[in-house]
Amino acid sequence: MTTAISIAGLVKDFGRGARALDHLDLEVRTGEVHGFLGPNGAGKTTTIRVLLGLLRADAGRAEILGGEPWRDAVALHRRLAYVPGEVNLWPNLTGGEVIDLLGDLRGGIDARRRDRLLDRFQLDPAKRIRAYSKGNRQKVALVAAFSSDVELYLLDEPTSGLDPLMEGVFQDVVRELRAAGRSILLSSHILSEVEALCDRVTIIRDGRAAESGTFDELRHLTRTSVVVDTAEPPASVIGWPGVHDAHVRGGHAEFSVDPDELNHVLAHLVGLQVRSMVTSPPTLEELFKRHYGAETAVRS
Amino acid sequence: MNGFAGTARLVRLALRRDRIVLPAWILGMAGFLAATTAMFAEQYARHPALLVPDTRIVVENPGMRVLGLVTGAHVGGYALHRDALTLAVLAAVMSMLAVVRHTRQAEELGREEMLRAGVTGRYASPAAAVTVAFGANLVLALLLGAAMVAAGQPVGGSMAGGASIALVGVAFTGVAAVASQLSSTTRGAIGLSGAVLGLAFLLAALGNMLGTVAPDALRVTSAWPAWLSPIGWGQQMRPFADNLWWPAALAVPAMLLLFGVAVLLLGRRDVGRGVWPERRGAAHASAALRSPTGLVWRQQRGTLLGWSVGLLGFGAVFGALSEEIKGLEGEAAEWYATFGSGGGLLGAYWTSMMQIAGTAVAVYVVTLLLRLHQDESRGTIEPLLGAAVSRLHWLRAYAINALAGAAGLLLLFAVAMGVAGGQVSGGRMSLVGDLAGAALVQLPAVCLLGAAVVVLIMAMPRRPAGASWAIVVFTVVTGPMFGPSLNLPTWLLNLSPFNHVPNVPAEEAAAGPLLGLALGALVLSVAGAALLRRRDLVLPA
């Protein structure tokens, strides 16, 4: 089997015309870390809940680890671990109890692995859930999931509330899991995290896959950002074909260029006597702006 | 004083937040008192000769004195005796919840931090909470008094009666203020206040049981423990007889003293923590916790313990009353006789007690099953079903806990009643076995009601609670306790499962109705499970 998750044409309606998923396609290959990027309300959590058999698809096909998520939920859940986006746990249990409970319900827990993870995430297992901060509650969910050695990890915005140090620990663990051949679906709206960890990415917008591929494949669809200082005033830049969002002040210009016009633009710039120039690959921030437009606020 | 800066503003905030809940408590209690007082007034207007003997039963039986005092033969006093303990407990709980909501819970949820970051004194929140709870109890006293006046009782006794109940709320306003300082959690503060309430009940009950009965058997002078309890203070007001007001005045200094203690404690602790730090728990889950059934057990074992204590106590009281029932005459005897004649008056009495226990246990089962809905609406079901737990496994965990809990509670009640009843009738231990059987006969009806609630939770996942309680109220009102006296049509009475329970031990148990009820429960359970398998879970966003 080469696909861990395969979704085609998935539709989920919540009634009253609220369509959460609108013919979504998503493929996660076995052994890859797949980024699932989108703003709040795009349908990431709904997709994962369908994959877990918590919600029933209205149309389309969803397959996870070769099984049907609604019908085979229990058998499939022995082979996967899940970190919910909103961690709702039992306030009167301790973190350690929750980790053991969830691990056991999944079919067993590796005690050594659990203790090592508690240590790495610096989590006190004897405190009650209600006494933990939001970040520590998130850590309980992460340790509970990572304590199980399973084929697939479904992580729904798993780092919300973690401090940068703990985010580093999280990234180390994910890289170790990938090295061990595990598959991971990482839903996020944090661009740097996805960029740092993911082999491939699917961008979801309004319940539809807007784009999917490796970063290289997505990059060729986007523009290059250019910041340049020239001896001749670069005012003419604004009219060149392939140039967008140009701002010119004196001998300074900032703009972006369509990839197929880049060579032309460079040739023109040379004629303006370039003094300094910085070009940068588009960040995921720009990918988002391109897909959602400036009017959609991107929380980060 | 600076420490109280902003109190007035916080009082307004608390009133705004409680504008539904406090009026609902107060009006509910007043409505209950008005209805029951009117019922007793009408009953004794028809049979005035019964008032004196009925009062003597209450005065002379130590078990009945657990519930309170009656002084002199007066309809108002007799009605108040039936309701006072329930209402006093409700007044205390209303006050405790209000105070904890605006102090410890506000701290636990981080709201106190926001308030105290503004121009708000250290003591403003508890001061506002106590002010609001005290005000609510003043209104409660007036409305309870008005309720009894509306039911035709004299003004002086009615007002004293209202005050005798509200003063318990006033005292527990202070108790909760201290508990909120001591405990680090909302649950802990409520639990601690509840424990003090239990102690107050025991002291009053003990004082009354150990009291001396006057020669005319219409008055009890309580022993000293009754004076240690706010519930006892209310009873010593002796509404409709002495109408003493000074015991009521004890409650206000008690509340102020306790509030002073709370202020002192508050000056010595950090925001967000109690004087008692939260205990550390287990770092590992015990073997008993590691299954859905164990998890459900863990979540509700405290509630079950509370129900167990309550049913044990009432079983013992009602068992001890058995001997008195034999001597009953007139209307009360007729009422009990409607439950069957095979076992005589006593058998009918035991049957009716088992029906009351069955109803109470059904309420417990419904509160437990509504946790199914809370698992969904609060999202705790997501990590559970995200692990390898099926929906049916989850439902089964609740069913096992409900069935075992209901059977355990019924047996506990029957054993307590059998032991106490056997004692007063000269060591007849066979009664325990008879009553245990009679109690378990209630189980199929309880299961049927529980299964109906499961169907509701699965069919209307967003708001099942209202409809669930509606069918509980319906089955109780149409059930054997009230149904026959309401002159309802037969088809309506047939809808209540409790009307199909054989009248054991007054009559022999018939297998047919029990199997029918069990089959109904099974069919509804299967329907609930089928609905659950088909639908989406309703999870928080």
UniProtKB/TrEMBL annotation, chain A:
Occurrences of domain ABC transporter (ranges): 5-231
Protein's recorded name: Tetronasin ABC transporter ATP-binding protein
Keyword check for Transport: yes
Organism placement in taxonomy: Bacteria, Bacillati, Actinomycetota, Actinomycetes, Micromonosporales
Principal place of residence: membrane
SUPFAM superfamilies for this protein: P-loop containing nucleoside triphosphate hydrolases (SSF52540)
Record's subcellular location: Cell membrane
Domain of life: Bacteria
Keyword annotations from UniProtKB, A to Z: Antibiotic resistance, ATP-binding, Nucleotide-binding, Transport
Membrane topology note: Peripheral membrane protein
Family affiliation: Belongs to the ABC transporter superfamily.
InterPro entries membership: AAA+_ATPase, ABC_transporter-like_ATP-bd, ABC_transporter-like_CS, ABC_transporter_ATP-binding, DrrA1/2-like_C, P-loop_NTPase
Classification via PROSITE patterns: ABC_TRANSPORTER_1 (PS00211), ABC_TRANSPORTER_2 (PS50893)
GO molecular function: ATP binding
From TrEMBL, chain B:
Membrane-traversing stretches: 20-41, 84-102, 123-151, 157-178, 190-210, 244-266, 304-321, 348-370, 398-419, 439-460, 467-489, 509-532
Keywords per UniProt: Membrane, Transmembrane, Transmembrane helix
Name of protein: Exporter of polyketide antibiotics
